[in-house]
C-alpha cells in the first residue's frame, strides 16, 4: 500500500503528465491555426493555456508543501525537485505554442505559410504533439522506449529546423524577408518545444538515478 | 552569528550571483565578437561557458544536499527552491551568449552585422551586461532599486527587439534574407537573455514573499 506521502508524489506526477498533454494539445491547436489559417483556433490556444499556467502554480505550491512537511530524501527528494523543473518546462512548451498562435493572429487573414512549406510544418506539428505525449508518458512510467523515441523525434525536429533554414536562405526563395522571418521564428518555436520535451525526459532520468550530467536541453 | 546552515545558503547565493556575472561576461565577449568580427572572442565565449555549466551542476547538487540534510522550511526552503531555478536561468543566459558566438563563428570572416545596425547591437549588448550584473546584485542583497532597473532594462530590450523587426521587415532593407534572419535570431537571443534576468529577479522576490503569481518570464 502506498503511504499518504507517496500518494502526494503520485498526484504531482499525474499533474505533470497532464501539463505535458495540455502543452501538446495547445501546440496541436496552434498548428491547426497555422496550417488552415484559422483565427479561432489560434485564439483558443491563448485561452486554454491559462489552465496550464494555473496548474503550474498549483503544482509548484504542492511541491513546496511536500518539501516543507515531509522533508523527503534520496530519490523521493529528486522526484520533487524534478517536478519543479518539469512544471517550468511544460509551461514553457505552452508558451511556445502561444508564440505560434500569436504569429497566426498577427498575420490573419493572410496565411503565415507559403504553400511550399505547409508539408514541413505539418510534420513539425505532428512531431511536437508526439513529443509532448511521450513526455507525459515517461513522467508516469519512465518507459525507456518512449524516452528514446523522444531523443529520435528531437533529432528529426532538428533536421526539419535545419531544412527550413536551407529553404528560406536559398536564392530560390521568392516570398521575401517578412515571410522568411516568420518561418525561421516558427521553426525555432517548434525546435525549442522539442528541446523542452528532451529536458523533461532528462529530468525523469535524474529522478531515478541522480545523474545530472545529462544535457537538460534548455 | 550565522549558523552553518545559513552559511551554506549564503555560499549558494554567492555562487548564483557569480553565475550571473559569468553569463554577463560571456554575453559581453560574444557582443565584442559580433561587433568587431573577432573570431577569437567568439571561441573564448564557448570555452568560458564550461565554467558556468560546471557551476550549475555543483550548485544544483549543493541545493539538493541542503534539502536532504537540513529539511529547511518557510523562507529558507524558498531560498533553496529559488536557487535551483536560478541556476537554470543563469545557465540558459550563458547558452544564449553561446548562440551569439556561434553565429559569429559561422559567418566568419564575414561580419554578421550590416553597418547600419551596429549601433543597435552595441546598445543591446550593453543592456544585456547591465541586466546580468543587476541580477547578480539582486540575488545578494535583494536591492529593490536594482530589481526595478531590471524591469526597465528588459522593457528597453523589448523595444530594441521590436525596432530590429521594423528595420529588417522594411521595404528599405537591402541586405537580403540571410542577413535579416541572422539579425532576427540575434535579437531574440538578447531579448531572451533579458527575460531570464527578469525571471531571476522574480525568483528572488518569491524567495522573500512566497509570491508565485509574478510572471517568471520564461
Structural write-up:
- Two copies of one chain form a homodimer.
- Chain A contains six helices and no strands.
- The first copy, chain A, is mainly alpha-helical.
- Chain A has one domain: Phosphate transport system protein phou homolog 2, domain 2 (Methane Monooxygenase Hydroxylase, Chain G, domain 1), CATH 1.20.58.
- The radius of gyration of chain A is 18 Å and the shape is elongated.
- Uncertain runs of chain A are none
Mind summarizing the main beta sheet of chain A? none
The protein's oligomeric status is homodimer
Q: How many β strands of chain A by DSSP? A: 0
How is the secondary structure organized here?
Two copies of one chain form a homodimer.
Chain A: H1 4-36, H2 39-70, H3 74-107, H4 118-141, H5 144-169, H6 176-209
Features:
homodimer; mainly alpha; Methane Monooxygenase Hydroxylase, Chain G, domain 1
Task: Give me a quick take on this structure.
With 218 residues, the first copy, chain A, is mostly helical. Chain A has 6 helices and no strands.
Amino acid at each position: 500500500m502506498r503511504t499518504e506521502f507517496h500518494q502526494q508524489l503520485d498526484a504531482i506526477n499525474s499533474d505533470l503528465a497532464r501539463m505535458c498533454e495540455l502543452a501538446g494539445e495547445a501546440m496541436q491547436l496552434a498548428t491547426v491555426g497555422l496550417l488552415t489559417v484559422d483565427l479561432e483556433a489560434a485564439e483558443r490556444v491563448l485561452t486554454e493555456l491559462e489552465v496550464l499556467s494555473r496548474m503550474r502554480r498549483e503544482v509548484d505550491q504542492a511541491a513546496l508543501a511536500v518539501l516543507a512537511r515531509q522533508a523527503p530524501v534520496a530519490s523521493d527528494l529528486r522526484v520533487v525537485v524534478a517536478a519543479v523543473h518539469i512544471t517550468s518546462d511544460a509551461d514553457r512548451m505552452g508558451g511556445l505554442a502561444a508564440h505560434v498562435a500569436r504569429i497566426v493572429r498577427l498575420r490573419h487573414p493572410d496565411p503565415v505559410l507559403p504553400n511550399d512549406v505547409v508539408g514541413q510544418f505539418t510534420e513539425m506539428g505532428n512531431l511536437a504533439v508526439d513529443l509532448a505525449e511521450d513526455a507525459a508518458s515517461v513522467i508516469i512510467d519512465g518507459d525507456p522506449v518512449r524516452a528514446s523515441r523522444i531523443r529520435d523525434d528531437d533529432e528529426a525536429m532538428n533536421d526539419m529546423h535545419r531544412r527550413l533554414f536551407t529553404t528560406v536562405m536559398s536564392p530560390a526563395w521568392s516570398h521575401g524577408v517578412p515571410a522568411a522571418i516568420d518561418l525561421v521564428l516558427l521553426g525555432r518555436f517548434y525546435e525549442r518545444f522539442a528541446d523542452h520535451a528532451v529536458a523533461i525526459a532528462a529530468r525523469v532520468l535524474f529522478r531515478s538515478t541522480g545523474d545530472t550530467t545529462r544535457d537538460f536541453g534548455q
